[in-house]
């Protein structure tokens, strides 16, 4: 493996860029609490490990090269993001807002839903597979065995993502008094819903890579 420290630095910059994973984590941390945010982050990291395994085993290459498979993942992921966005915006019209659904402490599947949202949002995004196949090879010697380097880089990226989410969720939770005000929650949920729909539409319009 070549330039590992440069790889780590690039990963940090890429992870800091806001995306649908960050939007979901923000929403669930604000509306449910720290545990909801952590469950969301755990789901995201589990999906990243699956993407890592797929890249190592060559499955991602098949998905990216197949226009049909790429389209299937793309549209399923886009529909899911749009669904989450519409669901978030729709909850604002209810009397008790999202708190009556997602933040209900009596809901037995409250935290499971957070994990599932984080997991599916990342897993169903084919751009993550494209990222792994276009970014990782740049730090590997083409003439050497790529199995171990790909595995190491995938685990490193997942670990860095986990650290970032821990810090981010902790920060959001620390200012929870402000973040959990009804007006603030409504504003964040409105922005999150709009952003998720935007990400979903953008993903749907993404062209397959050949």
Task: Characterise this structure.
The chain is an all-alpha fold and 210 residues long. The radius of gyration is 18 Å and the shape is globular. The protein has helices at residues 4-16, 20-31, 34-57, 59-65, 67-91, 110-123, 126-135, 147-174, 176-179, 182-204. Helix 2 (20-31) runs antiparallel to helix 6 (110-123). Residues 95-110 have low confidence and may be disordered.
Short description:
The protein has 210 residues and is mainly α.
Q: Number of helix segments? A: 10
Could you give a short account of the major beta sheet? none
Radius of gyration: 18 Å
Helical amount: over 70%
Structural class: mainly alpha
In whole angstroms, the N-to-C terminal distance is: 26 Å
Runs in which pLDDT lies below 50 for 5 or more consecutive residues are 95-110
Q: Quick check: average pLDDT? A: 78
Query: Which percent range describes the beta-strand content?
Result: under 5%
Basic shape: globular
> N-to-C SSE series?
HHHHHHHHHH
Sum up the structure in keywords.
76% helix, 210 residues, mainly alpha, globular, single chain
